[in-house]
Amino acid sequence: MTTYAVTGASGQFGRIAVTDLIEAGIAPGDIVALVRTPEKIADLAARGVVVRTADYADEASLRAALAGVDVLLLVSSSEVGQRVAQHANVIEAAKTTGVSRIAYTSVLRADTSELVLAPEHKATEELLRASGIAFTLLRNGWYIENYLGQIEQQKAAGEIVGAAGDQPISAATRADFAAAAVATLVGEGHENAIYELGGTPFTMSDVAAALSQATGTNIVYRDVTPDELAAGLQAVGLDAGTAGFVAALDVASKRGDLYTESRDLETLIGRPSTPLAEAVAAAV
Predict the structure, then answer these.
(1) Which domains are assigned to the chain?
(2) Cβ neighbours around 125 below 10 Å, total
(3) Which of 85, 75, 55, 60 shows the shortest CA–CA distance to 5?
């Protein structure tokens, strides 16, 4: 009997992964959901999932939470700038408690990418390699949902403003990436494997067209310079640091950092990734 654990189980990705484990036939009692606030996943506890309190920043809580766990899905922390230390805590606790394999949600080409988020993922991958624990690197592309958080504003403006150019983006839904993660948790032959995961490529103009179709409103994509994008974001209330960070992500996108020709995602989930139009329609 294998016991599986998922960190960040109250988050959007972690919750889907726990549910997918159940749907894959894993008994809820063999699934450990790690969260800082157990009340947030009372519904999963009601289904029989074992819920344990754990904090990325508290190694003692992680050691207690990982007791008896065989395979761990380490969902990367959302606290940019603190990820390496937090992930190190999880990996050390996993070593102490005898976890046999860790699957980690990294980012496309983490070891070579110029993406501003890549260094923390690269450092975590290095910690995993040095740990002696078998690993599975899930180098996820961008979530389609990342582009769908401002639909009402975009409808009102009739445009999406960005600096990504017409470079293809290999994004997929959060659910697709979670399904791939679970496939590696319960399947055979994924020890020390590295997967570059991306969906069917699209451009920002494709996003605008899909939003137009789904909303019945004409929405276009308007490409601007990174400085113009940052200035526009500050004009609507973002601080300079955040605006610069968002603009840097578009620069990375235009450079091709969010594109991959790999079909690893499709192979792992056993089907094509969710079409952009379908994901957009569901969000709308």
Answers:
(1) 4-140 (3.40.50.720), 141-172+198-260+274-284 (3.90.25.10)
(2) 20
(3) 75
Q: CB of 103 within 8 A of CB of 181?
A: yes
CA distance 171 to 183: 19
- Tell me which H or E stretch contains 221: strand 220-223
Residue 125: name the closest of 105, 143, 100, 142 by CA.
105
pLDDT digits (tens, 9 = 90+) for 55-84: 999 999 999 999 999 999 999 999 988 999
- Smallest CA-to-CA distance from 280 within 154, 181, 156 is with 154
Residue type, 141: G
Claim: this prediction has a pTM higher than 0.85: yes
**Amino acid symbol at 230:** A
CA distance 73 to 51: 15
261, two tokens: 């020709």
- Tokens at 107, concatenated: 């980012």
How many Å apart are CA 284 and CA 281, to the nearest integer?
5
